[in-house]
Design brief:
binds phosphoenolpyruvate, eight-stranded parallel β-barrel, globular
Length: 254
């Protein structure tokens, strides 16, 4: 059975104390569910404390929001995968559309980052997704498939099986506009079929594919009920316990 995940992406939000308060509230307010993981993608300043605070909670894991593609060296301001691993981090979000847009991260660079993360023992949560223009022009499936082909489809089958995919249509991120459950399902199935074509059906069936883009308590159950939607990567609604906890509980009704 595929792992189901409710992952929060805090982006560049929360000062140190308010982040710690949120982790405490999520630790108290979320419950363990069979086959479900809650992942908190916190800013770098919270990572080490977040790992320590959740070490005794089996269903919560912590993710970094980026890592560098090189092992180490003169890259001022950057953080390596092995540094993250050394403080107990096991997940890293890579390929978020904001990294692609504002930091010019290409599919090829992201392929290198994924490779480095895997070699270091981190599980990448790899984001892909199309812009509104591409969706309106109707070639979103081809665009996303191309993103995958030029980055993570370079991986061996054994490595690919360690990757979590997040389909995040850019037009739905932070906009309040959510893909309909049918639109999400359609793209998740496209992605799963592309994986089956590249690897095989059993790899495709085992790959966790998350939906991201204005997931909220009001739409999480409908989205997570879709057969190929295995959970969500959540931005805005992950910043408050009262909105993120119901999303983590949506699997119970999905
Ligand atoms: C995201 O940042 O990955 C995201 C999906 O944001 P939001 O939920 O706010 O749309």
């Amino acid at each position: 059975m595929r792992l189901r995940i409710a992952a929060g992406n805090w982006k560049m939000n929360k000062d140190f104390n308010s982040g710690i308060e949120l982790i405490k509230a999520l630790k108290e307010g979320t419950t363990a569910q069979d086959g479900v993981h809650v992942i908190l993608g916190t800013p770098f300043i919270h990572l080490k404390d977040a790992v320590a605070m959740t070490a005794d909670v089996g269903h919560i894991d912590i993710a970094a929001q980026n890592c560098h593609q090189e092992e180490k060296g003169a890259y001022t301001g950057e953080t390596s995968a092995s540094m993250l691993h050394s403080i107990g981090i096991r997940y890293v979000i890579l390929g978020h559309s904001e990294r692609r847009q504002y930091f010019r991260e290409s599919n090829e660079l992201l392929g290198q980052k994924v490779r480095r993360a895997l070699d270091t023992g981190l599980t990448p949560i790899f984001c892909c997704g199309e812009s509104l223009n591409i969706r309106n022009e109707g070639w979103h499936a081809r665009f996303v498939k191309n993103q995958l082909e030029r980055s993570i489809f370079e991986l061996s089958e054994a490595d690919f099986k360690k990757v979590i995919i997040a389909y995040e249509p850019i037009w739905a991120i932070g906009t309040g506009v959510t893909a309909s459950p049918e639109q999400a399902q359609e793209m998740h199935l496209e992605i799963r079929n592309a994986i089956a074509e590249k690897y095989n059906q059993s790899v495709a069936d085992e790959t966790t594919i998350l939906y991201g883009g204005s997931v909220k308590p009001a739409n999480a159950v409908d989205l997570f009920s879709q057969p190929d939607v295995d959970g969500g990567l959540v931005g805005g609604a992950s910043l408050k316990a009262e909105t993120f906890i119901p999303i983590t509980n949506a699997f119970k009704q999905a």
